[in-house]
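G., the chain you wanted modeled:
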Amino acid sequence: MASMQTECLHAARARLDRLWARGTEFLGCRYAIMGGAMSWLSEKHLVSAISNAGGFGVIACGAMSPAQLEEQIAGTQALTDKPFGVNLITMHPELNDLIRVSLDAKVGHIVLAGGIPPGPAIRAVKDGGAKLITFAPALALAKRFARLGSDAIVIEGSEAGGHIGPVSLTVLAQEILPHLRDVPIFVAGGLGRGEAILSYLEMGASGAQLGTRFAASVESIAHEKFKKFFVQAAARDAVPSVELDPRLPVIPVRGLVNEGTKKFLAHQAETRDKFLSGAITKEAAQLLIERFWAGALRRAVIEGDIETGSVMAGQSVGMVTHIQPVAEIIQELVDQAVKALAAREVV
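Predicted structure as tokens:
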């Protein structure tokens, strides 16, 4: 019986390897599990830990300068000889320089996120020999990005942490996976277990991207208060930011409810009243709202201000039950997928 179970597990593992073979080949790693690019968190320590554990780490450039990015890439390369990528925001004023820094450092995969990538940026990545990854919130855009030169696409559901779109991964996967086979597609948003990853692989995905579970890992540089907040939170605690008045739009960001969340609502109400009374212009009001969270993510992640800081987290935070090493998290995800496949053979 024991030998039969072992054989089933080996066969299941081989089946999993076949299911995400396109993703592992594209990324150049053992497991087609990408680390989500999280500002302040996805730096050299976490990125190298994910890559060393067989996944694919991604540096979150965010608002870094070219010099800062260069330092992070060099630091990551000093900690791992495995492949990793760099996530660049398309609206960054020094985007071209950031691409050049990445290419000069021989980074093999560049993610252009936060909007439709400009043509010159796409050409620079492609001409420089790197593989281009983009985010697509709809089938039409996914097809467009593939035509423009994306080598792979991430579809991220609204369950994710941080800036989110309006559609869940469950729906996005049904809309996109059956209809786009030209490039590898990685699913993201709300993923916390291997069985869920397996289900999307069987629908046609080439791999998955996770952020929230890695944010609370041992190797994450996040403050211990930040990590413990994740452990204590339930899925329902990770909610999108609320827009009080459509005349003063708020970019939806999913995070854990705290005093800062409540103060943001009060701030919106106060700012709206000033605008309606004519005390300030609409532009000034919009700026006041957008600046409310300035520096709040760093306060939460680095300083441990989980009361008024921005604690960005996906709904999978409910599956963060303790602080684990990255390698343990990845192995757990793989084992869950393998056991789910093996169980079918036993039945």
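The chain has two domains: 2-222+319-346, 234-312.

Shout if anything looks off.
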